[in-house]
Design brief:
This protein is an alpha+beta fold. It is built from 9 helices and 13 strands. Bound molecules: N-hydroxy-L-asparagine.
């Protein structure tokens, strides 16, 4: 935990005095962690694979990396894990046997980058970051995204591992397309999209989201995860949010943007996640048979999580503890 002097130094060094409400600027001790306010940094991410991702993000921050470095390197852990069936290497393919990846990243400066329908690259989040930092665009898709990645030093690799190929061939026997609830949490079998939000010692927020999308999806299908505002949104004046679950439902309510706007209007991260889920219940008829989960964080490091169906969990690093929590659900 950072001490009070260090925290105040951090505040002034990085121009983070905007954290402090007008009128309190003469007395920044209000945010001193030793007086019971939230201790920064805080990292929150979706599903069990979030534990290792959080740990990496914290390590990056503690070693002086930026909050964008932290979220990128955090989610690179599940991207590189061949046992993870829903992110990067080892992700489940589409119904034609191709692993196609979606990812996006957003930083405290409001900049954003994204790739979708990208094949043969283990770390789509790093390509998304490069789109953010090196191009005038936000999103590159498919062949163009791959071409951009190869031109910038990424190497092609077959992402279809024997385990994922076997799962696909088993699925082909019936070819029944009905995404199972919480398939993300089946140990060693299916995990899902990682969305990760971090707030650093200065109160600056970034987020990253990366996935191979729904297993056995139609070729060309893109979910919510690479769509800024749907799968991820960060506004450094307010907070950040990210989503998991059936992307079609998230896109229809522009879910992560909605959560952040609700926080802007005074809701806590928890209230905002609950209201966004309630919006899906009201507007999207499939809500009873599908899963969606949101996590959110504000600049003070307060967090929230809520989902449609029981079974969603998330990893939270706070006050030097990195542990799993079960999300409350609408149903
Ligand atoms: C998608 N939201 O592609 C992702 C997948 C996911 O639980 O999160 N599934 O729709």
């Amino acid at each position: 935990m950072i001490n009070r002097r260090k925290f105040i130094e951090n505040l002034s060094a990085a121009g983070a005095l905007s954290l402090i409400p007008a009128g309190l600027k003469a007395n920044p001790i209000i945010y001193d962690v030793s007086l019971g306010a939230k201790s920064l940094p805080v990292v929150i991410s979706t599903w069990i694979h979030g534990i290792n991702a959080n740990a990496k993000a914290i390590e990056v921050l503690k070693n002086g990396g930026s909050v964008v470095d932290a979220v990128e390197q955090g989610v690179m852990i599940p991207e590189a894990d061949p046992e993870n069936r829903s992110v990067g290497l080892g992700g489940l393919p589409d119904r034609d046997g191709h692993v196609t990846l979606d990812a996006c990243i957003m930083g405290p400066d409001g900049n954003a980058g994204s790739v979708c329908f990208l094949e043969n690259i283990v770390h789509p989040i790093s390509v998304a970051r490069m789109v953010m930092e090196k191009t005038p665009h936000v999103m590159l898709a498919g062949e163009g995204a791959l071409q951009f990645a190869l031109e910038n030093g990424f190497e092609e690799q077959n992402l279809l591992t024997p385990g994922a190929e076997k799962a696909w061939k088993d699925w082909l026997k019936e070819s029944k397309y009905d995404p199972e609830l919480n398939w993300e949490n089946k140990p060693n079998e299916f995990h899902d999209t990682i969305g990760l939000l971090a707030v650093d010692q200065n109160g600056d927020i970034a987020g990253a989201c990366t996935t191979s999308g729904l297993g056995f999806k139609m070729r060309g299908r893109v979910g919510d995860s690479p769509i800024i505002g749907a799968g991820l949104y960060v506004d450094n004046e307010v907070g950040g949010a990210t989503a998991t679950g059936m992307g079609e439902l998230v896109i229809k309510v522009v879910g992560s943007f909605l959560v952040v706007e609700l926080m802007r209007n005074g809701k806590s991260p928890q209230q905002a996640c609950e209201e966004a889920v309630a919006r899906i219940v009201k507007k999207v008829p499939e809500n009873k048979i599908r899963q969606v989960g949101f996590i959110a964080m504000n600049k003070k490091g307060e967090t929230g999580a809520y989902c449609l169906q029981p079974g969603f969990n998330y990893a939270l690093y706070q006050d030097n503890i990195n542990e799993m929590h079960d999300s409350k659900s609408f149903y």
